[in-house]
Amino acid sequence: QDQEPALRVTDVDVLYGSAVSALRAVSLTVPPGGVVALLGANGAGKSTLLRAVSGTLRLHRGAVTAGLVRYGDTVLDGRDPVAAVRAGVVQVPEGRRVFAGLTVDENLRTGGLGLGRRAPAQVAQARERVLTLFPRLAERTRQAAGLLSGGEQQMLAIGRALMASPRLLLLDEPSLGLAPRMVDRIAEVIREINAQGTAVLLVEQNAGMALSLADHAYVLDVGEIRLSGPAGELARTDAVRRLYLGEQ
Ligand code: ATP
């Protein structure tokens, strides 16, 4: 785990098109093997930050116009998703986006495609890991992904990302729209993935869940980092309790 690099986002500005400023001077670090939570209201810029790291910003007509995104020695700003995946950084997009018409197994096979030709044994090992982590998927490998429940689709989306054997997993609101029991299950899985040595950057509107998992957390507010600190400390601040934990 000590060999694993840190993610460093330094003073990043992001623009969509030529006018919509989505992030301003945002800095954030995910240490090797860490779990970092990124909280914030709708439209605060959380997904934008993940896209700036995973190289998917351009697909949304956005660009990093200032600052740096580095994973260890690898420059990620201005690159594409293949560059990020090769560096070991993989995003699970918001809203799951599994291929509804493909089977569970076919969806898993699309994970890690950006890595080029890999040894079959390596792919088989990644698949085994995913099916061990998600027994519900193991029972449904030949079922169309569109027939899975929302929670199962989220598991599949995470499993597909794990097929690329990431060192840093970027998760965009994995709890969105899921029943409380499924949210607990997803939280357990994130803990397990991290225990196996994968660092996690977790975007969530469910601040309670995110703060219970994270070592460190940041709060984004209209494109700027407003608060940051150890997750336990942030969970005790008045602003976070009121705005994000739903307390009075
Ligand atoms: P949500 O939880 O709703 O996804 P978020 O915190 O992830 O919110 P972003 O999706 O990153 O926020 O959006 C940040 C800002 O950038 C918002 O004002 C949004 O309207 C704008 N934005 C996002 N994508 C685009 C785009 N493709 N083109 C123009 N503006 C965009």
How does this model look, in words?
- InterPro entries: AAA+_ATPase, ABC_transporter-like_ATP-bd, ABC_transporter-like_CS, BCAA_Transport_ATP-bd_LivF, P-loop_NTPase.
- Keywords: Amino-acid transport, ATP-binding, Nucleotide-binding, Transport.
- GO terms for molecular function: ATP binding; ATP hydrolysis activity; branched-chain amino acid transmembrane transporter activity.
- The protein contains ten helices and ten strands.
- The protein is α/β, with parallel strands linked by helices.
- The chain has a six-stranded mixed β-sheet with strand order 6-7-8-3-9-10, with helices on both faces. Strands 2-1-4-5 form a four-stranded antiparallel β-sheet, covered by helices on one side.
- It starts with 6 loop residues before the first strand and ends in a 5-residue tail after the last helix.
- The mean pLDDT is 91.
- Adenosine-5'-triphosphate binds at residues 16-17, 20, 22, 40, 42-48, 60-62, 94.
Query: What is the mean pLDDT?
Result: 91
Beta content: 25-35%
Largest sheet: 6 strands, mixed
Oligomer: single chain
Can you count the helices? 10
Report strand order across the widest sheet: 6-7-8-3-9-10
Distance between the termini: 41 Å
Give helix and strand order, one letter per element, not per position.
Answer: EEEHEEHEHHHHEHEHEEHH
| Low-confidence runs | none
Which small-molecule ligands are present, each listed once?
Answer: adenosine-5'-triphosphate
The total of beta strands comes to: 10
Rounded Rg: 17 Å
> Which percent bin holds the helix content?
25-40%
Query: What structural category characterises the helix and strand content?
Result: alpha/beta
Shape: globular
Keywords: Amino-acid transport, ATP-binding, Nucleotide-binding, Transport
GO molecular function, one term: ATP binding
Domain ABC transporter: 7-247
Protein name: ABC transporter ATP-binding protein
